[in-house]
Amino acid sequence: xxxxxxxxxxxxxxxxxxxxxxxxxxxxxxxxxxxxxxxxxxxxxxxxxxxxxxxxxxxxxxxxxxxxxxxxxxxxxxxxxxxxxxxxxxxxxxxxxxxxxxxxxxxxxxxxxxxxxxxxxxxxxxxxxxxxxxxxxxxxxxxxxxxxxxxxxxxxxxxxxxxxxxxxxxxxxxxxxxxxxxxxxxxxxxxxxxxxxxxxxxxxxxxxxxxxxxxxxxxxxxxxxxxxxxxxxxxxxxxxxxxxxxxxxxxxxxxxxxxxxxxxxxxxxxxxxxxxxxxxxxxxxxxxxxxxxxxxxxxxxxxxxxxxxxxx
Amino acid sequence: xxxxxxxxxxxxxxxxxxxxxxxxxxxxxxxxxxxxxxxxxxxxxxxxxxxxxxxxxxxxxxxxxxxxxxxxxxxxxxxxxxxxxxxxxxxxxxxxxxxxxxxxxxxxxxxxxxxxxxxxxxxxxxxxxxxxxxxxxxxxxxxxxxxxxxxxxxxxxxxxxxxxxxxxxxxxxxxxxxxxxxxxxxxxxxxxxxxxxxxxxxxxxxxxxxxxxxxxxxxxxxxxxxxxxxxxxxxxxxxxxxxxxxxxxxxxxxxxxxxxxxxxxxxxxxxxxxxxxxxxxxxxxxx
Lengths: 312, 287
Known about the structure:
By secondary structure, chain A is α/β, with parallel strands linked by helices. Chain A contains twelve helices and twelve strands.
């Protein structure tokens, strides 16, 4: 099932749902004809869309709102924080082309601080699926929750079969004593590649798909950091405020420490290009990740990385 | 009509070459072809005749300023830079390469780009700041900010006009590339903008509405700068999305295009008046 199919089915079955967009229609192309007046496109007006969504929520609606991740989280930030966060209204934010998915657009369109911003809002919940199947697994529970939510929409396909989504729980793919990779979102695919290489090199490797950044699965983070020699945090996000920060907060809260190697954007935006070139340039292919962990090169051939489905 | 001070043939030749550059950038990842083609003539005119900007004065505080606020029409700007000697033509081939800085939105790594853009409704206010400082310093340099019509959905555009009016910024020109479309559809089918002339006038601007593909009309309008002492200038340039390529003109589904090599070849011929191109590549309208 696709994102659009699930959203259509959910909204047709429940009159409370309103689908909104700030003229970002890529994910909801066929919905206007199905929902009629329960589809609202406010034009390129992210702030007004969020305010209007809050008004609709006051009347008992559940607005699922769409915009580019950078404009949804940053242009409309105060509206999200004030109009959804303070009153704890069920605005469901679907963010389009977050992180590396904005490929050739440039820094204006790079949402690489969205997790940090959204998790800082009281009442907000934050999710980052590994692929389309993971996304469709988690959305029914997210949309049923009375809180506002932020989802990094990721409709890419992987070969991985995900387990059912459990609220607040990470998906532990494997456990290992030498290295455990903690990741979320589209880099999950590269983490699978990296884990394969590390296993081939004889290491015991753990891999965790975080799925939810807030409320985060503290148990999974503690298990990983305490159970293996090195913990890797892997994310298409600034080093500040994302998974690396979350792990640091969890460790501090439990009065423990760990050997953590972060892969993130450190005080920089990423080089704009097509997605496979971005990953290669920034050092985020599975092979590059594994070799940085190992400290040496391997003969492993990096599998091809598919182009992004959307441009902007 | 006033006496024309321009060589229309020369401008048309330059604009044709700029359109060729745009078409050549619309492959191997693609670019925003429709919006670039609609803005090409007015960008060529402004750099050729109105703006005091050349490769020798890019750091001179007395130069004029152009801010490209809609941003995704930057292939038209890079094409103009290449034709007017501000950018090496060969560098256009580096579109989307990690070895250069030429991608879907403007950035200041490219000499002549005053400010990065892509997030709509930012540069009208940046342009105000520059125009204010020029006023404070008693300078005579001009500031132009090109905005898209879809961009006018964003409230900050209108805040900028209010503030420009309050500070009597008659050294600032907001140029609207009125190509009638935003990403997915006609502007009037989504968030209607008309009567646009009246809206800007009501906000305190001195407004001219012209054919944005006529160099004579562009020249007549800009020769009248400043339109009225003490008033911010607005030029509504009526344009056609995809201008020059009948097979994509005025089409809602041809906003971002990633053509294959055969299509690019065909479109280059079409630009020069030959038959329409058979387009098979997927349309990519996503915003």
